[in-house]
Amino acid sequence: MAVTQAGLTLVSTSWIKALNVELLKLHPSLVRNIEKRTENQLLVQSLVEACAGTPTQVYATGVRSRGEWQTLTKRGVAGGQGDFFASSQLLDTNVKKYSQRYSV
Description:
The protein is α/β, with parallel strands linked by helices. Helix content is 30%, strand content 14%.
């Protein structure tokens, strides 16, 4: 099971062990300028520590800078995605952006 947008709201972390979560993806607002925001650093570190002893790995989304990535890895984040790693690519305009199963 994967959990997305972790850290968007503050809640108990007991669900991490109870639900057998494999992947926990941090909300981009938690990642943004984290190198300058000690409260976000503490929250990320708390989430990583709550996952200790479980198969859960913490990943960051929306990583834009080296400073953000270095801070996240120092806090125990296992991986990440965002413009720091690879910039967003435009979709081919000839590709339909909806499922073929449903009529639009």
